[in-house]
Design a protein that fits this description.
The structure is a homodimer. Chain A is of the alpha/beta class. Chain A contains ten helices and 24 strands.
């Protein structure tokens, strides 16, 4: 019996386990520190009160119910011994013939870890509900605030980072303030909320083409988002953000700027790249460890076609998970493995209602069609009928009413 | 302008504000420490992973959007001066011509406050998601537990209190383990989970008739719930509950036994009853304070028809809120107030799938019809189209698949 241990039930780990499901002679143990698989591309919609956590997540063991050779365990990996193919977790030690590591990434504050408390990132469900509570609470605070200057600080929202998450967050906050909340307050006018999107580089969405990025910038401007390019954040405080030399009073900062591989990578004992990722060869294994696959955001992979690093997106992780499973099955048959080739299915980002950008193969387009395609792709990407139906219901309701169904501040009111 | 200050946006406060909406000459300030109105009768469904928090709650200011004379503020009342009709909160002082207090209730541990950490109650959303995480985590822990005795403790669930909440929780946990989780685990058989319902009194559901209570007990037994009557909990520890003289090893205890009025009542400076509630006269005002109404679970009200205390249910609070609003409007017209008369619309409780008990007027019945009626009443009771549609979708999906859509452990995995 070949023992496969998979660390992380993200897109990579889950798809590897699915591809190994019910294969004879293979025994899979899938470890994750939470009990659910999270559809991260829609996490910003939880953070902006459009969806509930349960809409974009599903219990891992329920997804793999019919995979009789897969054992799902809720465990946090603490240390990995590459040579021994051994994982130490909070519930014990796991030894493997094949080790698949897809522990994901977290946010990077470029040496300013103290900023995290003021400027939370958006990688997990608790972070998303915390960000949601912060945004909603800011409007509540502005409503009961007597001092005009303080009120303006509560009504200023700063999103740091001009990648897809930053663009989508800024667009969603602007839309929420312009439409959803517009008539709900008595003293303040939420439509006057200021949304600032700060990007240190020269343009938004570096992974997209120039035209798409320019379109996204126009769409954001139409929603009233103030986009600042070439503007680096130099300080984050409790009541302000400093962008370059100018201090912006604000009470709500959302961090979507840097990504850093899970700290678990440090336990592997191999040299890591600048973002803490594990360099792997064209077979997705660290040099000298042919039975260890490093997948998804944890791996630094160079695309042999473009010679550029692969982006940290769901499609890369999904394809890598399936590739690792295929390699194990090839080994089992005594067949050669072949190298990993990323099939780029394109990329898309949405900027508020009926506005999105798509780049699929040679086609680059935006606007209404792109938005509807974005909806379709994301609904199909969700796990299971219930999530799809629930998200369609919430989106359908929002489309016609401009409402957001999950406007909940919970957590500090118990 | 008559200034009305309402403390609490539960069933009483929200319905009072609705009844005063857009009435000339009346200005309402509605204070609540959270931003949402919670449909408490379905809270146990959040705790048992059937529904999401957003399904059973709606933003108070959104519900009252069209009530132009109502100002909703998120504030926690800290002290109330009855004579001055003055409320001190964390955001400042509010003075009123009429004061409506519906601050609700919390759980009572009968002098054993230390039990709360081990045996959480079920009154707020954070409590419900915490209970949900505990129940789901218990199965996860049992799955990765090598020791048989410890495993059995993780698979034992004790619900304390045989009122509607306790009965519904015990039924839902049993159903979840028998159906939803049955095929998801490899090492444990969730169907063998033990669910114990402990009630100190001689019977379940004292507010219901003998026959209904007996039926509920049979239905619980059919689901495999072990019901212990006349059994008082004498100790709660981290790994066990002591019932009478016998120690039951368990890791999950849910408290549904006692109710105590909000501690805010203590600030009023009037004598309270044993459960910490404020005694009020037939006009729902504390003696000598005709412009202060105490409503819902905070009030000790004697029903003039039956001479028994009114139960702590949503219908009582809703009718009391409307009554208080009607009194204010009567005063405005110079008309006499009239006394509060509770119109008992009946009561119901559900015990798992297609099993419920109903008592409406003289009709007492159970089984499938009661269950469908229960569904209908609770869907209609929810606020707004979105919640109703979402709950119908989740329930419909659960009905056909036995699934539970919100099987999320969040909060400790960030």
């Amino acid at each position: 019996m070949t023992r496969v241990v998979v660390v992380g039930a993200g897109f990579a780990g889950l798809n590897a386990a699915k591809a190994l499901a019910n294969r004879p002679g293979i025994d899979v143990t899938l470890l994750d520190r939470s009990n659910h698989h999270l559809f991260q591309p829609l996490l910003y919609q939880v953070a902006t009160a459009a969806l509930s956590p349960a809409d974009i997540s599903a219990p891992v063991r329920s997804i793999l119910r019919r995979a009789r050779n897969v054992q799902v365990l809720m465990a946090e990996a603490q240390h990995i011994d590459l040579a021994a193919r051994r994982v130490d977790t909070d519930i014990g030690r796991f030894e493997a013939d094949y080790l698949l590591i897809g522990a994901g990434a977290t946010h990077a504050y470029f040496g300013h870890d103290a900023w995290e408390a003021m400027a939370p990132g958006l990688k997990t469900l608790p972070q998303a509900t915390a960000v949601r509570a912060r945004i909603l609470r800011a409007f509540e605070q502005a409503e009961c605030c007597a001092d005009w200057v303080e009120q303006q600080a509560w009504l200023s929202f700063v999103v740091v980072g001009g990648g897809p998450t930053g663009v989508e967050m800024a667009g969603a906050i602007a839309e929420m303030s312009r439409f959803t909340l517009a008539r709900d307050f008595r003293r303040i006018d939420p439509r006057k909320a200021r949304v600032l999107l700060v990007e240190a580089g020269p343009r938004l969405l570096p992974a997209f083409g120039e035209r798409s990025a320019a379109r996204a910038r126009r769409d954001l401007a139409a929603l009233g988002v103030d986009v600042r390019l070439g503007a680096a954040v130099t300080d984050v405080a409790n009541d302000s953000v400093t962008v370059g030399a100018s201090r912006v009073p604000t009470r709500t900062v959302i961090w979507a700027a840097g990504v850093r591989a899970s700290p678990l990578a440090q336990s592997l004992g191999v040299p890591l790249d600048r973002a803490g990722r594990v360099p792997v060869n064209a077979g997705l294994t660290p040099e000298g460890h042919a039975c260890v696959f490093v997948l998804g955001d944890l791996a630094a992979t160079i695309d042999p076609a473009t010679r550029r690093p692969l982006p940290g997106v769901a499609q890369v992780a999904i394809q890598q998970g399936r590739y690792a499973a295929a390699c194990i099955l090839a080994d089992q048959r005594g067949a050669p493995r072949g190298i990993f080739r990323y099939r780029d299915k394109g990329q898309m980002a949405t900027i508020g209602r009926q506005r999105a950008i798509c780049e699929i193969g040679g086609f680059k387009f935006g606007g209404r069609l792109a938005w509807w395609l974005w909806l379709l792709v994301h609904i199909l990407g969700l796990t299971g009928f219930r999530s799809r139906a629930s998200v369609m219901l919430q989106w359908g309701w929002s489309f016609f009413t401009y409402g957001r169904g999950a406007r909940l501040i919970v957590g500090r009111d118990s």
